[in-house]
Hints:
Elements: H1 3-23, H2 28-37, H3 44-60, H4 68-76, H5 80-83, H6 110-118, H7 123-128, E1 135-139, E2 154-155, E3 161-164, H8 174-177, E4 181-183, H9 186-193, E5 202-205, H10 212-220, E6 226-231, H11 234-237, H12 240-247, E7 252-256, H13 262-265, E8 273-279, H14 300-317, E9 321-331, H15 340-349, E10 353-356, E11 364-366, E12 369-372, H16 374-377, E13 382-389
Parallel strand pairs: 5-6, 5-8, 6-7, 8-9
Antiparallel strand pairs: 1-3, 1-4, 2-3, 9-13, 10-13, 11-12, 12-13
Amino acid sequence: MTPQARVQAAIEILDLVIAAARAKGAPADRIISDWFRSRRFAGSKDRRAVRELVYAAIRACGDVPASGRAAMLRVAEGDAALAALFDGSRHGPEPVRAAEPVAAAGAAPRWLEDALAASGIDTEGQAALLQRAPVDVRINTLKAALAELPEPGEATVAPHARRFPPDTPVEQWPAYQAGAIEVQDAGSQLVCEALAVRPGEAVVDLCAGAGGKTLALAAAMDNLGRLLACDADRARLSRLPPRAERAGVTIAESRLLDAGREAAVLGDWAGMADAVLIDAPCSGTGTWRRNPEARWRLTPAEVARLAGLQERLLALAAPLVRPGGRLVYVVCSLLDAEGADRIAEFLAAHPGWRAVPCALGAGEPRGGGMRLTPRLDATDGFFVARLERL
């Protein structure tokens, strides 16, 4: 493909990404893969170059652009070499017209920028949310030593993490295939540390998903004790058993939650858990480094819906914890509506609980918890609070 053809391909893909964002359709990664699947003429260098153009445009536009061309013109305004490729050549984009619409720059739609600012994330902090993320791995202490990695990587704020450049193919490494490492952001590893689990304890991972944090907790417990992984999504939870087998985890039990009957399904754990982790569904504002088009899909109504769900999960988890036990609440969001506000409301409604400090070795205090950000901690964005039952 010529450079001009790559730009035109990126424009066509962006049109599909924009339509999907408006309709809550497929994510950008899948759209890009599907587009190239039917265009075998594009080589690996072409695919990489087009992908980079697509994501550069997604990151550059604050609100949902009117079109893929308008989004690419936003990038071209700061890149003379790219602007020169709008030359009308064969398979390339048409020349730029006078007064042609250009997508507006920004970190996010205006309402979301305002919500982040009100939550203490300034302009620099918002910009950092859109930088490319590195690849972090967690050393699985049940199996691995650092010597097993083909490259040493960089140390991070998390004690068992190593960091590699974006797009490092760690999943092709023998260490990954043997279960010696897991791909997991350093911030995600740190919030697991906040639960401070110990061998022999009874622990619940209430929103386990595919089990990334479950595996980290099992390693911290040295495969000793009881570890219950729960989720309402059957497909995601079904990915845990093979991952656990690969990682050498033997104590993780999975349990599917039935919507509306969660308390009944968990009745045998009432007052039994030493520790409960709630990795709650959230807006994902802290993960835009990996999913930048997600900010085009979010609405105030969706944030309000998620806050209601988070409130219900806290109420569900509290009775599971024994007196003196602990509950850690985590969201990969930087909005106070999903973090500090949720903890303040929980404590006001549950006088038998208190917030206790999280010794993460990173982050800054926010409300009743701690917050990790890409700008200050070089991790994804997280809010984490540790609560103790009196």
